[in-house]
Amino acid sequence: MFWSKYFLPTLKEVPTGTEAISHQLSLRAGLVHMLTSGVYSYLPLGYKVLARVENIIRQEMNAIGCHELLMPALHPIEIWKKTGRDVTLKEIMITFDNKKGQRMCLGPTHEEIITDLAKHFIKSYRQLPVTLYQIQTKFRDEIRTRFGIVRACEFIMKDAYSFDRNMDGLKKNYDLQRQAYIKIFSRCGLNAYEVSADSGAMGGSVSHEYLVPTPIGEDAFWINMKDGKIIKDEEGKAPQGDHWERKVAIELGHVFQLGTKYSESLGALYLDEDGVQKPMIMGCYGIGVSRLIAAIIEVNNDAGGIMWPKEVAPFDVEILPVQISDGESMRLAAEYYKELTALGLDVLLDDRDESAGRKFNDADLIGIPLRITIGKRALANNQVEIKTRRMTKEQGILAVDKNKDNVKEEILKLWKS
């Protein structure tokens, strides 16, 4: 992609009214744009990050035998009345009457909808177990939106639902999801802590949250720095004993053993081996996809901007010719672009007629993992400069012979490291 032809509006100044670094950098790096409080558009760069995060989630969900579908965001309120959650979630539900006079809501979550779907298609024990998931937009009428896409009125979630014959089957699926969650967060460059949690309005007997320590967040936990024990901070009181440290965190995921709460209420029954009707045993597994992006930025940034982990970066390599008026610089830039693209790398070439300072500042801001700088000073020695976004001044910059094969070799070496 050529920057001059791309839609990538960056901002020099920190937008007013933003407190979280992830919110500031999301706006400044041209990832998102706020339409109104708690409602955001994903601009092309942010949408590429979103797509890469979703791809990681899909890969890990598919790897444990889950099947993707897509459920409607528009729900008749009658189905929510069957579980009583039309009342429980009343404060955050966005509801309205359609032109037929039918009471509707925009889905804040999908337990009722998936259970109704399972009720229609799963009739026998031979069809179990099965786990279905989607990546979809949810809607909640948040009174107090905060931290940009961390707490918003419209947000993207991965929600998976398992259906089993018995509790042993549920526990097996539950453990598969827990293992997959750790892999997902790790691939996104995050160290997530699993913490036992309260099931709340979701119901069920067992649940766990996945928390990532960040400078901002609405959750917290205590960790014992000696033995690694973790306790959710529910009341702000320190656990008894020594070596405890409190960490503020963002909740990125929550998993639940729901049991028969929804299947009984909605009549999702199956026939067992003896021909006896029984309610399906359910589990529910959520990941906040959009807030995952915010968490990645919160723990992967410096004074210059974002430092994307390579699996979620919008581009793999940025080529930065300092002077676009210099024919040799642009010839090499085009040559590197062609060679690296042919290797399957996603490359951004900054061909804008901007000052060197603006180009370098924007490069740091958007945080592409690898950068090739083509400048007259290095070219005088038949060299170009290669650096990773995470290289410090003390680590220096790699000066590499400008030959395309040398550049390609060095980029691949850094990419694999």
How many runs of DSSP E, i.e. beta strands? 23
Which structural class fits the helix and strand makeup? alpha+beta
What share of residues is helical? 25-40%
Number of helices: 12
Q: Give me the Rg, rounded.
A: 25 Å
Strand proportion: 25-35%
Largest sheet: 9 strands, mixed
* Unreliable sequence segments: none
Overall geometry comes to elongated
Q: Give the end-to-end Cα distance, rounded to a whole number of Å.
A: 24 Å
Mean pLDDT: 94
What's the helix and strand layout?
Blueprint: H1 21-28, E1 32-36, E2 39-42, H2 44-63, E3 67-68, E4 74-76, H3 77-81, H4 85-88, E5 94-97, E6 103-106, H5 111-121, E7 130-139, E8 154-164, H6 167-187, E9 193-196, E10 206-213, E11 219-224, E12 230-232, E13 244-259, H7 261-266, E14 269-271, E15 277-279, E16 281-288, H8 289-299, E17 301-302, E18 305-306, E19 317-321, H9 327-342, E20 347-349, H10 356-366, E21 370-374, H11 376-379, E22 383-388, E23 398-401, H12 404-416
Parallel strand pairs: 3-7, 19-20, 19-21
Antiparallel strand pairs: 1-2, 4-6, 5-6, 7-8, 8-16, 9-10, 10-13, 11-12, 11-13, 13-16, 14-15, 17-18, 21-22, 22-23
How would you characterize the overall build of this protein?
With 417 residues, this protein is of the alpha+beta class. Helix content is 31%, strand content 29%. The protein has helices spanning 21-28, 44-63, 77-81, 85-88, 111-121, 167-187, 261-266, 289-299, 327-342, 356-366, 376-379, 404-416; strands spanning 32-36, 39-42, 67-68, 74-76, 94-97, 103-106, 130-139, 154-164, 193-196, 206-213, 219-224, 230-232, 244-259, 269-271, 277-279, 281-288, 301-302, 305-306, 317-321, 347-349, 370-374, 383-388, 398-401. The strands form six sheets. Strands 3, 7, 8, 9, 10, 11, 12, 13 and 16 form a nine-stranded mixed β-sheet that branches. The chain has a five-stranded mixed β-sheet with strand order 20-19-21-22-23, sandwiched between helices. A hairpin with a 5-residue loop joins strand 5 and strand 6 (103-106). Helix 1 crosses helix 8, helix 2 packs antiparallel against helix 6 (167-187) and helix 2 (44-63) packs across helix 8. The longest helix is centred in the middle third of the chain and has 21 residues, at 167-187. It is elongated, with a radius of gyration of 25 Å. The mean pLDDT is 94.
